[in-house]
Here is the input.
Amino acid sequence: MKILSSSQIRDADKHTIENEPIESIDLMERASASFSKWFIGEFPGKCKVHVVSGKGNNGGDGLAVARILKRNGYEVKVYTTSDEGSEDFNINFHRLPEGIERKVVDDSLGSIETGVLIDALFGSGLDRPIEGRYAKIVKEINQFAGQVVSIDIPSGVYADNPVDGEHVVEATHTVSFQLPKLAFFMAENEKFVGDWHVVDIGLDQNFIDHTDSRIHMVTLEDVRSYLKKPAKFSHKGNMGRSMLICGSSGKMGACIIAARAALRSGAGLLTCYVPAVGENIIQTAVPEAMAMVSTFQDYHVEEANFKGMDAVGIGPGLGTEDQTEMALRKWIKQLEVPAVIDADGLNMISSRPDILKHVPEGTIFTPHPKEFSRLAGEAEDSFKRLEMAREYAKKHKVIIVLKGAYTAVFDTEGSVYFNSTGNPGMATGGSGDALTGIITALLGQGYSSKWAAIVGVFIHGLAGDEAAEDLGCISMTATDIIDYLPDAFRHVEMR
Ligand SMILES: NC(=O)C1=CN([C@@H]2O[C@H](COP(=O)(O)OP(=O)(O)OC[C@H]3O[C@@H](n4cnc5c(N)ncnc54)[C@H](O)[C@@H]3O)[C@@H](O)[C@H]2O)[C@H](O)CC1
Ligand SMILES: [K+]
Here is the structure.
C-alpha cells in the first residue's frame, strides 16, 4: 500500500472531485460517513460525544460527523472555534440539526466530564505550531479523562514532517482518510497518534496507483503475492544451502536462535560455522543443522569457505574481537552469494568503515536505530533518520532493514517499505537473531534481497503477533517467535 504526502492526497482529492465527478461537500459527507461508521463500530453504546471543530475542512468533517452520530442516537455536543470557516465548514455548520448542543468557544471548552471527544480542530491543513487560544484548547483536550478520537490526524501533527510545537493532541485513536500518513510510522508520534485506523473515502484508486511514491506499507496481500510455494518436486538441495556465521564463547544462544529460525523458514540445508566452543552446543541444540567448526576455541578468527552456498547470514553472537573483525573482512571480500549482516557484524563495520567498499551490492544490513547511528551518524528525529537510511542504502547499494516498532526496509533505489506486523513484546533478546535466520533462509530459497528482507520482516512480526496473542507481550521470548513461525507462514499461505 502506498503512502502519499499531504499534497499528493490533496491532488487525489481534487482529481476525484473533478473526475468522478463529485461535489467537494459530498466528498466530505462520504468521508464523514466512513469515519462515523468506524466510530459506531468502536463505540456501540450510545455515549455522549463532544466534537471539537476548527474552521477548516477538518472542522467541517467534525460537524458532519456530529450530525451523523446524532442521527444514530448519540447525544452530541459541538464546540467550534468560530461560527464561520471554509466553504464546506459553513455548509455543515448550517446543516447542524436541532437537538445538538453547540457552543462557539474562545480558549476554553468548559468542563467536560464523560463521553468520547472527537478532535476535528486541525487536519492536514496545519501549517504552523498551535499557539494562543488553540493551545489552551489542546491542553484541555489532553486533560480530558475519556477517550479522544482524532479525525484524519491528531491536531498538531504534520503528515510529512516532525511535530514543531508543544501543543499537540494526544489521541487514543486516529482515523485517517484513505491511506495512512507517514507521521504514523515515527516513534516520537506514537503518543499523539495512539492506535491508528484507515477508512476508505473513495478517492480515485487509479489516480493513487499512478501517483509516484517511494514510501509503502507492506500488507498481508503484498507478502502473499511474493511468498514462494515449495514446488511438488522440491528437495532439500533446492530449498537452499544456507550458512550462518555466528557464535562466540558465551554467545552461542544467538546462533541457536538464528539457526532454528532459519530451519522454520524453509532452509533446505543449513550449516552453522562456529568457533570450537560452539560445536557440541549447536549440534545438540539444533540437530538439523550441520556444523562447520573453526580451530580457534572462543571466537572466530579464520576465513570461511562459502563454496556451494546459496546464502550467508553473518553476525549473531560473533562478538567484536579484533581477530574476528579481521575474519569478517575476509568473509566479506569473498562473498559471492547474497548475504545478511547483523548485530556484531554491523558494529565491526561501523568501527572500520573501509570494509564497506567490499560489501557486495544488495547485501542486507539489519541495524536497530542505535546500530544505524553507529553506521551512519546520529539523526535528530525519525524523519531525518528515514532520509539518512534512504541515502545510505542508495549510496552503498545495500538493503537496510531499520528495526523498530515499524521496521522499515530501504532498497537501493530509494524506496522504503514499512512493516505492519509486530508488537512491543518482540523487543526482547534474540529477536534480531531470529530475523537474521529467517532472512538467510529466504535468501537461500532464491528471494531477491529486497523481498527476502520485506517478507522476512513481515513473517517475523506476524509470528510475534501470533505468539503475543497466546502468551502476552510480557512473557514472550525469541524462542516463542520461532515456535510461531509455522502459524505465520500458514497464515500468509492461506487464501
Ligand atoms: N482527501 C481527503 O483526505 C479529504 C480531506 N478532508 C478533510 O480536510 C482536511 C484538511 O482541510 P483543510 O481545510 O485543508 O485544513 P484544516 O482543517 O487542517 O485547517 C486549515 C485551517 O486552519 C488554519 N491553520 C493551520 N494551522 C494553524 C495553526 N497552527 N493555528 C491556527 N490556525 C491554523 C489554516 O490557515 C486554515 O484556515 C483533512 O485533514 C480532512 O480532515 C475532506 O473533508 C474530505 C476529503
Ligand atoms: K484532527
The first helix runs from residue 6 to 19.
